[in-house]
Write a structure and sequence with these properties.
Blueprint: E1 6-9, H1 15-21, E2 27-30, E3 39-42, E4 45-53, H2 54-59, E5 62-66, E6 72-76, E7 87-91, E8 97-98, E9 101-105, E10 108-115, H3 122-131, H4 142-146, H5 158-182
Parallel strand pairs: 4-10
Antiparallel strand pairs: 1-2, 3-4, 5-6, 7-10, 8-9
């Protein structure tokens, strides 16, 4: 059922009331959806979030997903398949059943995030370089290096940066607005 869906049970009211009033009274039921801690619903589809380790994302994974009806589903990748961060995979007919069509179901979408390590030791880097495809040639000549300015990358919270930037733009807009209304008076050109 969808959230807020109204179901009419025609002539299903209490028998005593029906005999007394000589009316057929209907009962209406309005559904209310309760959020689930792991599954999110959109129409007939279900969405599930799952985090993989870097090794699982690169070298295959398997895990058991307990579905809403209690069934245990084995979720696994194909050998050699790489799962990228923010990638979605779908399982047909494991979503919600359609109203009045219980054998027609939506999809179950699994949204994968990948838990990257923060740091690798030099030995781990060498081991990874030995098994991963080679890097593109990034060796720079001494001349190229001499002509460049060296920079430093730092971590950033992009949502916070965007909020700060929006606040600065709003302040600048407000200052311009104050200058227009409270500052200098407008002077009109005189006609000759």
């Amino acid at each position: 059922m969808k959230n807020g869906q109204k179901i009419n049970f025609s002539a299903e009211a209490d028998e005593a009331v029906r005999l007394f009033l000589l009316l057929f009274i209907s009962v209406y039921w309005v559904t209310a959806r309760k959020d689930h801690p792991k599954f999110k619903r959109k129409a007939d589809d279900l969405f599930f979030e799952h985090t993989l380790s870097l090794a699982e994302a690169l070298c295959s994974f398997q895990f058991i997903l307990t579905h809403l009806d209690g069934r245990q589903l084995l979720i696994k990748s194909q050998p050699g398949e790489v799962v990228k961060p923010d990638q979605f995979k779908a399982i047909n007919d494991e979503g919600m059943p359609q109203y009045q069509r219980p054998f027609m179901k939506g999809k179950l979408y699994i949204h994968f995030s990948v838990d990257f390590q923060e740091f690798f030791s030099p030995d781990q880097c060498k081991a990874l370089e030995a098994v991963l495809p080679s890097r593109p040639s990034s060796l720079l000549t001494d001349r190229e290096l001499d002509e460049c300015e060296e920079t430093t990358l730092h971590d950033v919270n992009i949502e916070e940066e965007m909020r700060r930037q929006q606040a600065r733009a709003q302040e600048a807009y407000d200052e311009d607005d104050d200058d227009m209304h409270g500052g200098a008076q407008r002077v009109q050109c005189a006609q000759q």
